[in-house]
Amino acid sequence: MKHGIPVGVVAALGLTQIIGYGTLYYSFSILAPAMAGDFDLTVEQVFGVFSASLFVGGLSAPFVGKWMDRFGAAMVMTFGSAISALTLLLCAWSPSTVVFALAIALLEVASGMVLYQAAFAALVESRPQAASRSITYLTLIAGFASTIFWPITASLHEHFSWREIYVAFAGLNLLACLPLHYRIARSRKSEAALSVHHAREAVVGALPGDLRRRGMIMVSLAFALQGFALSAILTHMVPMLGTMGFGAAAVVIGSLFGPSQVLSRLINMAFGKNMSPPMLATLSGVLIVAGVVILGVSGTWLPGAVAFAVCVGLGSGINSIAQGSLPLWLFGSAGYGAITGRMAATRLAAAALAPFVFSVLMERFGVNVALMVNALLGAVGIAAFVAVVSATRRTATATP
After folding, report:
1. CB of 28 within 8 A of CB of 111?
2. DSSP state of 5
């Protein structure tokens, strides 16, 4: 059982990831227009605040990664749940734009303590050799977050203000996520105490020491460009499709994203054993770029929009797996939190620019130009992943 998947931990983290992504990320695009009206801002300005907050989250990511290595990822997640609840309450109470912007920035710092970066580190700490498969199962469960919380948030908003919804979401983080994260942290300490005579079998990275720095730069660049592409699309997906002329169907088309994420993870579980993490990362980039190009070319053709949502969902689903498994495969389990923290910093910094930049591109040059720019950046990310695949192949070939 030493290398087996920790089913209880994966299930608990799956639930907290659904709640975390649903309340801290996916709900924002639904509630943003109401927030704008409440503070007498434009929607673009609200997304500008969101972009700035993502940048702050990126700056904090390396520190969060070091805290996870030092104190344990699950313990960091426990404190993160409390901070998430408090900052959601601060958002709901905020009497001014300044307080609101500060609260949104703090919310992104808290997100780094409870979402995928932390959850993946918790799985690596629990059982390093089983972490790659555990990450796949976790992302399979968490893939339902958008499908669940987009409709829930929209339905709640028909009866409650965005402030009241954020109070309810604070309760979810405090009463559901915090106890589960604390229980995982306690069980991790118990396991460590019982297994003092058995050293955990660490994962050794595929890249040798002389290539690690270059590999870190290439992978960070690739994930940053994918982060930009996905952040731009996910933040604007439903409003963008509505602007293009799909009307009420925009929500239905957007809802295909979540199931497509789940489908990609199911396919990976069944057939992905022979694909290395760099190959998975490359495939995710190809799917995302293909989806964006299809939408840009097909315009208001409904099957094209459906193909777009499905391709982006498939690519995003695989990308989530790659974010956890690729650093482990390339660099090993030692210092995993700090490594993923540095990668998250560049990815979140790029993602921070995406909602605002994409909004400006759509406003000034139209949806098609914005989509093509997005696709071009994604293509550069694919090239970076291909370079990493080539480097690992050359290393494997040169090894006697």
Report:
1. no
2. -
- Residue 57: both structure tokens together: 């989250």
Name, in order, each residue with C-beta under 8 angstroms of 399's C-beta and a sequence gap of 6 or more: none
Query: Residues 240-267: pLDDT tens digits?
Result: 888 888 887 888 888 788 788 888 888 8
Tell me: the pLDDT tens digits for 305-337? 999 999 999 998 888 888 888 888 888 878 888
Encode pLDDT of 63-105 as tens digits.
998 899 888 899 999 999 999 999 999 999 999 999 999 999 9
Rounded to the nearest angstrom, the gap between the alpha carbon of residue 142 and the centroid of all alpha carbons in its chain is 10
| Residue whose C-alpha is closest to residue 54's, from 112, 98, 96 | 112
Rg over CA atoms, the chain: 20
DSSP state of 400: -
CA distance 152 to 258: 14
Amino acid found at 131: A
Q: What's the CA gap between 107 and 83, in Å, rounded?
A: 8
The per-residue DSSP string of 119-169 comes to: HHHHHHHH-GGGHHHHHHHHHHHHTTHHHHHHHHHHHHHTTS-HHHHHHHH
The 10 Å Cβ neighbour count of residue 284 is 28
Structure tokens at 87: 């900052």
pLDDT at 194 over 70: no
Angstrom distance (rounded) from CA 302 to CA 318? 25
Tokens of 362: 């759509």
